[in-house]
C-alpha cells in the first residue's frame, strides 16, 4: 500500500466553523458562560442579579439584572464578534477598567446555544425581545412587557458540539461550579444582591442581600466557622502603584484545601505565584496538610496590567509581580503575627462517641466510670461540683403568672401591637392522626439519635448563659459550650412532629394582617427583595391570598388560625409558659409562602415544621430594642427562659441527631480529669 506525498490544499475555513472554534475557547463550560454574563451585568451597573439554572446550566442558564439595559438599535449586532461599547482602539486596552471589552461573550454563546435577550432601558416605553443563532437575530426584535435591565436566557448549551457536551461533568458538578462563580462575585461585589436557584424549585441555593459587606457575604456563603476567624488585610505602595485589601483567616482556622478568592482590578482571576506566596507564610502557623481561606482584592495601575492573555480572562499579567507577591505575603505575615496571641483550640473530639460513629456497635460514655480507692472515697479529679437538683433563687424571678404583660403578652410587630397568650388546655382525648408522612419523619428522627449527646442533655446541669446564643452546661466532670438556637431548632422540630395536630393555641389580642406582616418582612435586608420582584404591596397581597388558601390545613394541623379577612389570629403553643420572640413573625409569614414545598405531603410537613422551629428558637435581636434598658430587659428575660424553660425542655424532649457530634452545637471546653493532668505536670 502506497501513501500519497502530495501537499494538501490550503482552504479557508467556513465562517461558522471559525466562530464555533473560537466559541469553544471562550465558553468551555456553563460556568464560563455565566462568568461572562455576570461581568456584563456588573458593567451595566446592576444592583440585583438573579441566576436560574437547569441541569447544571446545560439545559437552561438564565441571568437577569436591573442595570442600564441594551438599546433597541444595538440588538441587531450585539451578538456579533468584536462588537463592544467599552473599546474603541487598541490603545484603550492600556486603560481598560471594565470587565468586558472584546465583544466575544454573547457571540460565542450564540454559536453554541440558543440565545434569547429581553432588555429595556430607562427611556424605552416597553421591553424588547430577540432570539439569536450563530450571532445573527432570527427575527427583528419584538416589543413585550419587562422591567428595566436585561434578561439573557441560554438554552441547550453545546447542542451542536456533542463531543464537548459529553466531556463535561455531571449536572450536579456543573451546578457546583456555577455556584462557586456566583458566590465569589457576591463576596467581592457586596453592594450588589445575588441569588441562585434551580429552575422549578422554591428554595434558593444562594442569596446575598444588596448593600452588604464582604464579611457578611462570606458568612452567608462559606459559613460562620470562616467568618468568625477573619482578619482584615490592607496596604498600598505608591512605588509599585498597587493597593491591596482583603480578609484572611487567622491561625485558629484551617481546611484541607486552600480557598482563595483573588480579584485584580475587580476581575476574578487566579495567580499561582500569589497563592504559593501566601501559603508559604501560613506554613509557619498551620499544621501540615492544612490551608487557609483567602480573599484578596488588588488594584493595580491599569497600564501595568495585561488582561488579554487568556481566552476566558482567567489569568492576567502584571508588572512587578515578584515585588507585589512579596508585599502581599509580608502584610499577611504581620497580621498573623499580631493575632497569634489569641489562638483558641476546639476539642470536639472529647465528645462521647464522636469518634466512634462510623464504627457502630455499642457505645459507652466517657464519664460513666468514677475511680474510687479501696475505702470508697471519690478522687478529687472525679468530683461533680454542682447538683442539678439544687434550687436557685433566679427560678422565681422574671415570672408572674398573674401579670399579662410578661408571660401572657407577645410583642408583635414593629407597629407595637401586642398579643395575649391564651393557650388552649390539652384535651383529655388526644387526636390520633395516622399519617404515613408524619410517621416517616418521626422514624427518621429516632434512627438518627446520638446516644452520647442524649446522655449529656438528659443529665446536664445548667451553668449559665454566655449571651443570647451561647450557654454553658455541665455533665459530670465536663463543661460544655452549647449553641442554644441550634439545639432548640432541633427540639421544636421534634415537638411539632410528636404533637402533630394536637397543639395548644397562642391567641393574639388583636389579629395581625398577613399582608402588613409580609411588607414588614420585605423591608428587611435578609428577605432579598428587589424592585424586579414587584412592589412590596402586591407581593404582600399575594402572600395573604396564598396563605388564606391553605388556612384550613394550617389551622387543623398546626393551630395557625387565619380569619376570613386574611389576619393571623393564633400560632401553636409548644412549651408551657414559653412565648417566642415576635420580631421574627413577619419573616415567618414570608418563609411559609416561599420556602415550604407545597407539592408533596411529606416535604410540606417537614418544611413547615422546620420554618416554625426556626421561628420559635430565634432569640431577641438587639437592633429591635429602642433603648439600652429595653435591650437589657429583653436579654435578661431570654436568659431566664433559656435556663428555666428551654433547657429543661431539651432535657425532656430532644433526641439529638448525629451531626451534632461533628459541628459546633456542643463543644467540650474543659474537663476536670485533663485539668488535673495539667496541674500534675506543674
UniProtKB/TrEMBL annotation:
<feature type="compositionally biased region" description="Low complexity">
    <location>
        <begin position="409"/>
        <end position="427"/>
    </location>
</feature>
<keyword id="KW-0007">Acetylation</keyword>
<dbReference type="Pfam" id="PF16413">
    <property type="entry name" value="Mlh1_C"/>
</dbReference>
<dbReference type="InterPro" id="IPR038973">
    <property type="entry name" value="MutL/Mlh/Pms-like"/>
</dbReference>
<dbReference type="GO" id="GO:0031981">
    <property type="term" value="C:nuclear lumen"/>
</dbReference>
<dbReference type="InterPro" id="IPR032189">
    <property type="entry name" value="Mlh1_C"/>
</dbReference>
<keyword id="KW-0067">ATP-binding</keyword>
<keyword id="KW-0227">DNA damage</keyword>
<dbReference type="InterPro" id="IPR036890">
    <property type="entry name" value="HATPase_C_sf"/>
</dbReference>
<dbReference type="GO" id="GO:0030983">
    <property type="term" value="F:mismatched DNA binding"/>
</dbReference>
<keyword id="KW-0158">Chromosome</keyword>
<comment type="similarity">
    <text>Belongs to the DNA mismatch repair MutL/HexB family.</text>
</comment>
<dbReference type="InterPro" id="IPR013507">
    <property type="entry name" value="DNA_mismatch_S5_2-like"/>
</dbReference>
<feature type="domain" description="DNA mismatch repair protein S5">
    <location>
        <begin position="218"/>
        <end position="337"/>
    </location>
</feature>
<feature type="region of interest" description="Disordered">
    <location>
        <begin position="409"/>
        <end position="430"/>
    </location>
</feature>
<dbReference type="GO" id="GO:0032389">
    <property type="term" value="C:MutLalpha complex"/>
</dbReference>
<keyword id="KW-0547">Nucleotide-binding</keyword>
<dbReference type="InterPro" id="IPR014721">
    <property type="entry name" value="Ribsml_uS5_D2-typ_fold_subgr"/>
</dbReference>
<dbReference type="GO" id="GO:0016887">
    <property type="term" value="F:ATP hydrolysis activity"/>
</dbReference>
<keyword id="KW-0539">Nucleus</keyword>
<dbReference type="Pfam" id="PF01119">
    <property type="entry name" value="DNA_mis_repair"/>
</dbReference>
<dbReference type="GO" id="GO:0005694">
    <property type="term" value="C:chromosome"/>
</dbReference>
<dbReference type="InterPro" id="IPR020568">
    <property type="entry name" value="Ribosomal_Su5_D2-typ_SF"/>
</dbReference>
<dbReference type="Pfam" id="PF13589">
    <property type="entry name" value="HATPase_c_3"/>
</dbReference>
<dbReference type="GO" id="GO:0005524">
    <property type="term" value="F:ATP binding"/>
</dbReference>
<dbReference type="GO" id="GO:0140664">
    <property type="term" value="F:ATP-dependent DNA damage sensor activity"/>
</dbReference>
<dbReference type="InterPro" id="IPR014762">
    <property type="entry name" value="DNA_mismatch_repair_CS"/>
</dbReference>
<dbReference type="InterPro" id="IPR002099">
    <property type="entry name" value="MutL/Mlh/PMS"/>
</dbReference>
<keyword id="KW-0131">Cell cycle</keyword>
<keyword id="KW-0597">Phosphoprotein</keyword>
<protein>
    <recommendedName>
        <fullName>DNA mismatch repair protein MLH1</fullName>
    </recommendedName>
</protein>
<dbReference type="GO" id="GO:0006298">
    <property type="term" value="P:mismatch repair"/>
</dbReference>
<keyword id="KW-0234">DNA repair</keyword>
Amino acid at each position: 500500500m502506497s501513501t500519497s506525498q502530495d501537499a494538501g490544499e490550503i482552504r479557508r475555513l467556513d465562517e461558522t466553523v471559525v466562530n464555533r472554534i473560537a466559541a469553544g475557547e471562550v465558553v468551555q463550560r456553563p460556568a464560563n458562560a455565566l462568568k461572562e454574563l455576570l461581568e456584563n451585568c456588573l458593567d451595566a451597573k446592576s444592583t440585583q442579579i438573579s441566576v436560574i439554572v437547569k441541569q447544571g446550566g446545560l439545559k437552561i442558564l438564565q441571568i437577569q439584572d436591573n442595570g442600564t439595559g441594551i438599546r433597541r438599535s444595538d440588538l441587531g449586532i450585539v451578538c456579533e464578534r468584536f462588537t463592544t461599547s467599552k473599546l474603541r482602539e487598541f490603545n484603550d486596552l492600556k486603560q481598560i477598567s471594565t470587565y468586558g471589552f472584546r465583544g466575544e461573550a454573547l457571540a460565542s454563546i450564540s454559536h453554541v446555544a440558543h440565545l434569547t435577550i429581553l432588555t429595556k432601558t430607562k427611556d424605552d416605553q416597553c421591553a424588547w425581545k430577540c432570539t439569536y443563532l450563530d450571532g445573527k437575530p432570527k427575527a427583528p426584535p419584538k416589543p413585550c412587557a419587562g422591567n428595566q435591565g436585561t434578561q439573557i436566557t441560554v438554552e441547550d448549551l453545546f447542542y451542536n458540539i456533542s463531543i464537548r457536551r459529553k466531556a463535561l461533568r455531571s449536572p450536579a458538578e456543573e451546578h457546583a461550579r456555577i455556584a462557586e462563580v456566583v458566590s465569589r462575585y457576591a463576596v467581592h461585589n457586596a453592594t450588589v444582591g445575588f441569588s441562585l436557584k434551580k429552575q422549578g424549585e422554591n428554595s434558593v441555593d444562594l442569596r446575598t442581600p444588596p448593600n452588604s459587606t464582604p464579611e457578611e457575604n462570606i458568612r452567608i456563603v462559606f459559613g460562620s466557622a470562616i467568618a468568625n476567624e477573619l482578619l482584615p488585610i490592607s496596604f498600598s505602595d505608591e512605588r509599585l502603584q498597587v493597593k491591596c485589601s482583603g480578609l484572611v483567616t487567622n491561625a485558629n482556622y484551617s481546611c484541607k484545601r486552600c480557598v482563595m478568592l483573588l480579584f485584580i482590578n475587580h476581575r476574578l482571576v487566579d495567580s499561582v505565584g500569589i497563592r504559593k506566596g501566601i501559603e508559604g507564610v501560613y506554613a509557619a502557623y498551620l499544621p501540615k496538610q492544612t490551608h487557609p481561606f483567602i480573599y484578596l482584592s488588588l488594584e493595580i495601575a491599569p497600564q501595568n496590567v495585561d488582561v488579554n492573555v487568556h481566552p476566558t480572562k482567567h489569568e492576567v499579567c502584571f508588572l512587578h509581580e515578584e515585588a507585589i507577591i512579596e508585599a502581599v505575603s509580608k502584610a499577611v505575615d504581620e497580621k498573623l503575627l499580631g493575632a497569634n496571641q489569641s489562638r483558641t483550640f476546639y476539642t470536639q473530639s472529647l465528645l462521647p462517641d464522636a469518634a466512634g460513629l462510623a464504627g457502630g456497635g455499642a457505645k459507652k460514655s466517657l464519664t460513666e466510670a468514677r475511680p474510687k480507692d479501696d475505702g470508697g472515697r471519690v478522687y478529687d479529679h472525679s468530683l461533680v461540683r454542682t447538683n442539678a437538683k439544687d434550687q436557685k433563687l433566679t427560678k422565681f424571678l422574671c415570672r408572674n403568672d398573674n401579670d399579662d404583660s410578661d408571660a401572657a403578652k407577645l410583642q408583635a410587630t414593629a407597629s407595637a401591637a401586642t398579643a395575649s397568650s391564651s393557650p388552649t388546655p390539652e384535651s383529655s382525648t388526644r387526636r390520633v392522626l395516622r399519617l404515613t408522612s408524619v410517621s416517616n419523619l418521626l422514624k427518621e428522627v429516632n434512627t438518627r439519635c446520638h446516644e452520647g449527646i442524649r446522655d449529656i442533655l438528659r443529665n446536664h446541669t445548667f451553668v449559665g448563659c454566655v449571651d443570647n446564643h451561647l450557654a454553658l452546661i455541665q455533665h459530670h466532670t465536663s463543661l460544655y459550650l452549647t449553641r442554644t438556637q441550634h439545639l432548640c431548632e432541633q427540639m421544636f422540630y421534634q415537638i411539632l412532629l410528636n404533637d402533630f395536630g394536637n397543639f395548644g393555641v397562642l391567641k393574639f389580642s388583636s389579629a395581625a394582617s398577613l399582608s402588613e406582616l409580609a411588607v414588614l418582612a420585605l423591608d428587611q435586608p435578609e428577605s432579598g427583595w428587589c424592585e424586579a420582584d414587584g412592589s412590596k404591596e402586591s407581593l404582600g397581597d399575594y402572600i395573604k391570598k396564598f396563605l388564606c388558601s391553605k388556612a384550613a390545613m394550617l389551622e387543623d394541623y398546626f393551630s395557625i388560625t387565619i380569619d376570613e379577612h386574611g389576619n393571623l389570629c393564633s400560632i401553636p403553643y409548644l412549651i408551657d409558659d414559653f412565648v417566642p420572640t415576635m420580631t421574627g413573625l413577619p419573616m415567618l409569614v414570608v418563609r411559609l409562602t416561599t420556602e415550604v414545598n407545597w407539592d408533596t405531603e411529606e416535604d410540606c410537613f417537614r418544611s413547615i415544621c422546620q420554618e416554625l422551629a426556626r421561628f420559635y428558637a430565634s432569640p431577641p435581636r438587639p437592633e429591635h430594642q429602642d433603648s439600652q434598658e429595653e435591650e437589657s430587659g429583653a436579654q435578661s428575660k431570654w436568659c431566664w427562659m433559656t435556663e428555666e424553660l428551654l433547657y429543661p425542655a431539651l432535657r425532656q424532649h430532644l433526641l439529638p441527631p448525629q451531626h451534632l457530634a461533628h459541628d459546633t452545637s456542643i463543644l467540650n471546653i474543659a474537663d476536670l480529669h485533663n485539668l488535673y493532668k495539667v496541674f500534675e505536670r506543674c
